[in-house]
């Protein structure tokens, strides 16, 4: 890589052998460097590339506001998420994590309490992500020398959820979590019982909804050429279909889109399985 411009003591703008512009981060990396100097990737802690149509200067300024220690800690957390959740270690994961850690440390130092209104829902819907978030707190403590509040694991879990479905910003993950919790509440209210959210069918329901969000985002909803299976679901589980229609309305309001007939039918099938779980133990 070749230095294009020194940003500060720890960061430079550079170009690689293919002419791609980069922001290169490393302790003391910018000290004494001049435009045209060569930099080996081995001496860089992090290398960032602006997303397509994004402004590299804006990315550089954003990264400049994040302490290098937080960037490095975020990299370690991303590697942990790769091991535990099979996530790809990417800039899209590391940068939001680093930004969050920087803000979390700042809040802790100033004694500002963090608010996590979806903590219960996250514990129910994303147990693996939350467990990884809690484990990440130990990594952060070892790296930064501060112990973040235990509930920060909730926010880290939401970043992991975002990374799985490539949804930018925490707002999307929070929206998805809230909608899933409301979907369970609708099932409870419709059938007059409380779904065991630890059951296998509840886990399948959550997984189905999460991938439904992903399909909607990518414009690839389920739409079968043959309606035989869909018709069979509708005929076999009429009450579940009614409940699925309520969930459909909830999802369409939240996602600002229309669901296909097939998507609603598969929702009904999952609702029917939740009902079967409860009836089995009555």
Automatic annotation (TrEMBL):
Listed A to Z, the keywords are: Repeat
Among InterPro entries, the record links this protein to:
BglG_antiterminators (IPR050661), CAT_RNA-bd_dom (IPR004341), CAT_RNA-bd_dom_sf (IPR036650), PRD (IPR011608), PRD_sf (IPR036634)
Q: Where is the signal peptide?
A: none
KW Repeat (keyword) present: yes
Q: What superkingdom does the record give?
A: Bacteria
Residues forming the PRD domain are 65-170, 171-281
Family matches, as Gene3D superfamilies: CAT RNA-binding domain, PRD domain
Protein's name in the database: PRD domain-containing protein
Q: Which organism is it from?
A: Arthrobacter gyeryongensis
């Amino acid at each position: 890589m070749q230095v294009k411009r020194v940003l500060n003591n720890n960061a430079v703008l550079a170009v690689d052998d293919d002419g791609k512009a980069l922001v290169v981060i490393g302790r003391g990396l910018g000290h004494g460097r001049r435009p045209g100097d060569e930099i080996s990737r081995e001496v860089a802690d992090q290398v960032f590339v602006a997303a397509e149509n994004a402004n590299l200067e804006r990315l550089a300024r954003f990264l400049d506001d994040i302490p290098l220690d937080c960037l490095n800690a975020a990299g370690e957390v991303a590697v942990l998420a790769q091991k535990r959740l099979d996530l790809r270690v990417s800039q899209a994961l590391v940068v939001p994590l680093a930004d969050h850690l920087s803000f979390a440390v700042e809040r802790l130092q100033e004694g500002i309490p963090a608010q996590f209104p979806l903590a219960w829902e996250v514990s129910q819907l994303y147990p693996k992500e939350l467990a990884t978030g809690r484990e990440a707190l130990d990594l952060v403590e070892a790296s930064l020398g501060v112990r973040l509040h235990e509930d920060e694991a909730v926010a880290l879990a939401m970043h992991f959820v975002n990374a799985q479905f490539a949804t930018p910003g925490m707002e999307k993950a929070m929206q998805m979590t809230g909608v899933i919790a409301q979907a369970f509440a609708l099932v409870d209210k419709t059938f007059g019982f409380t779904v065991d959210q630890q059951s296998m069918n509840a886990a399948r329901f959550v997984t189905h909804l999460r991938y439904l969000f992903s399909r909607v985002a990518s414009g690839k909803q389920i739409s079968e050429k043959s309606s035989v299976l869909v018709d069979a679901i509708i005929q076999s589980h009429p009450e579940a279909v009614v409940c699925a229609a309520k969930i459909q309305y909830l999802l369409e309001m939240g996602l600002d889109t229309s669901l296909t007939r097939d998507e609603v039918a598969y929702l009904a099938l999952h609702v029917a399985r939740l009902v079967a779980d409860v009836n089995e133990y009555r």
